[in-house]
Give the backbone structure.
Amino acid sequence: KAGVTQTPRYLIKTRGQQVTLSCSPISGHRSVSWYQQTPGQGLQFLFEYFSETQRNKGNFPGRFSGRQFSNSRSEMNVSTLELGDSALYLCASRDGGVDRAASPLHFGNGTRLTVT
Amino acid sequence: AQSVAQPEDQVNVAEGNPLTVKCTYSVSGNPYLFWYVQYPNRGLQFLLKYITGDNLVKGSYGFEAEFNKSQTSFHLKKPSALVSDSALYFCAVRDIGSYKLIFGSGTRLLVRP
C-alpha cells in the first residue's frame, strides 16, 4: 500500500496570507490527524477527522481549520499567517476500526511551512 | 491527564553497543504506549507499541521496548546499535478521552562508527 502523501513538501508564505495543505491517507484508512512540529513546542495535536467529521481539536486558534472529504483525503487551512506558524505540519492516518486506542498512527513526510 | 517524559535530549552510543532510550509515562488507567523514529526531513515512523500482555515488546528494525508498570517506564532498546539508527526518537501515549497521541519531547540518538 502507498503511504500517507502530503503536498506540497515545502511552502514559503508571507505573514498575513493563508495556506492550504493537503493529505491523502493510506488506502482504507478513514481517520486523519494533523500535528504541528516545532523545535520549541515539539509535536502538538491540531485535529482529527473521521468520515468527514471533526472528532477532536487541539488547543490552536480558530485560524487553524481543516476538513475531510468523502474519499478520506484531508486539507488543513491556516489563515492570517503569523511568523510563529512556521513549522513542519504532519498528517497521519489510522485504521479507524474497532480498537481506536491500539491502532498506531502512520505519518506522511510533512509539509514544511516557512512564514516570512 | 496523560503525559510522557523523555529525560535525555541526546544519547550517544558506539556502533555495536547496546542502546537504551528512556521514556516514563503518567496515565490514569491502562497505558497505550508507542515509539516512533524520525529521520531528517521525514515524518515519524512507527516502531512498536504496548497495549497489554508481555512486558517486552518487539518492533521494527531490531528494536524492542520494556514496559515496567512499577517504574512507569517504557524504555526503547536495541542489543547492537547501527550508525543508521541515528535519528530522533519519540515516545507517545494515547489519550483515552480524545484518542490523540501525546508525544514526548524527543531524544536524539547518535551512533558513532
About this structure: The radius of gyration of chain B is 13 Å.
